[in-house]
Amino acid sequence: MNAALQPRAVPLDRLGRPLQDLRLSVIEACNFRCGYCMPADRVPEDYGLDAAARLSFDEIETLVRGFARLGMQKLRITGGEPLLRKDLPALIARLATIPGIEDLALTTNGTLLARHARALRAAGLRRITVSLDALDPALFRELSGGRGRVEDVLEGVAAAEAAGFERMKFNCVVQRGVNEDQAPVLLERFRGTGHIVRFIEFMDVGTCNGWDRARVVPSAELRDRIHARWPLRALEANYRGEVATRYAFADGAGEVGFVSSVSDPFCGDCHRARVSADGQLFTCLFAADGTPLRPLLAQGETAFAERLGELWRGRADRYSELRGRAGAPRKHVEMFLIGG
Ligand code: SAM
Ligand code: SF4
Ligand code: SF4
Question: The whole model's pTM is what?
């Protein structure tokens, strides 16, 4: 980190956690209706703010510069479906050059990737995560709320590979009795390619996904099943606060990850802030309300960074550690507003 970027000490929140990651949603609309995120019967077809309600590229640049001043080094662009945001590569190009940002990544459902992969790469994007819950075409379509075609996603993946993206990540939200059987299918397909499949526990995000603990497949159970077929060896975390627990295939065919926020919460190392497309700060994936940042952005990068530091210092979130206990917050922001 360039010391000149940090006029003050890096702020720590009330639990001693620094601000290292930002998940920035650039759009709230999506072309899918995954049942665990944006169920079709709860979110209307034409859902989405009008474009003017979204932060402009100028506002986003000020925002990211302000976060970088406080020590944020890892920036992930998300949504809704971020590839629906007009001129996204132009935004990426602006963000890629901001001092202090060491890792710039994108999470996408992949359907529009074939069209944009080359421009994203040229703009400076270096990492892509594709959400992929099934390879079976009929199941994939069903899980996307009848919107997506797995063939399009795989075409997008091929285009991203051709554009130079390596070690892509594939996120699969596993639901018991729904797509558990796709776990070995996904591994069969991506083991040995250099890409990494990560299995994510179905989470109780938002208010409308009908979450039921019985549909959560604990990572340890899934890991044991995979281990029985392809022996695994635990890997050290790449860095403190890494969300996924990593394992290497003993036969050298790469690695697999597990994100276990239900069965094994990791709030103690949560260094992540989230900002919605309309510029609200959420300091937890399960926060009820956000803090509007737009008025602060209008005051410029320095004043914004100062106020953001104060907001971060006041943070005490640890929902996953409190889940199910008396007093744990019940109202949560929708996942499609803050992007995971
Ligand atoms: N639309 C993009 C996509 O799907 O990759 C980006 C936004 S999406 C909200 C980000 C991630 O959140 C996806 O990988 C998705 O699978 C995950 N997600 C959404 N709802 C979830 C839930 N209830 N439990 C676990 N992960 C969830
Ligand atoms: Fe859209 Fe992503 Fe949510 Fe699915 S998980 S509905 S693709 S925002
Ligand atoms: Fe971070 Fe909140 Fe998730 Fe805990 S529940 S890891 S504080 S986002």
Answer: 0.95
